[in-house]
Amino acid sequence: MLADAxxxxxxxxxxxxxxxxxxxxxxxxxxxxxxxxxxxxxxFAEKDGERMKFKRFVIPRHSTVLRCEELITTSKTTxxxxxxxxxxxxxxxxxxxxxxxAIWRPEMNDKRRWEPIYLARWIVRNWDAADCALCKQGSSxxxxxxxxxxxxx
Length: 153
Description:
By secondary structure, this protein is of the alpha/beta class. It has a single domain, classed as Rossmann fold (3-Layer(aba) Sandwich), CATH 3.40.50. It is built from 5 helices and 7 strands. It has helices at 2-13, 26-37, 76-88, 133-136, 144-151, and strands spanning 19-22, 41-44, 46-48, 51-53, 64-72, 94-104, 115-121. A 5-stranded parallel sheet has the order 2-1-5-6-7, sandwiched between helices. The relative contact order is 0.16.
C-alpha cells in the first residue's frame, strides 16, 4: 500500500528508471515493492562499517538508477548509497536527481543535491544544548539510537 502510493508520486516526476536501489535495512522492502510496481530491476546497498557498499548486484552500463529510502532526515545514507553505486558498480550509470521516500524529515539547513519525492514531510530541527529550551530546564539531550528503548516506553 505504501509502495503503491509512492509509485504514483514517482511516476509523476520520473518517466522511467532502469533500477531502483534501496538502502539497508528498512528501505529494502519498500524499494523492492516500488521496483515491482514500476516493473523495473531492484537492488540494495549494504552497510560496511561506517560506509555503504554495493556488491551483490551489477547494474548494466548506461542504466538509470532511482534511490529509495523509507525515511530521510540527514541525507547521509542517501548520499552514501550513491557513492557506493558509483564506486562499486563496474559500469558507469546515471543516478537520478530524485530520491523516493515515504517520509522526508529535512533539517532546517538542508543542503541536499537531489530532489525528494515523498509521501509525508516533517521539518526537523536540531538544537545545540546551549540553545535548547528543554536542556535549559534540566532535560538531558539523548540520541535516539542509544536510547531507543527509553523512547519507546
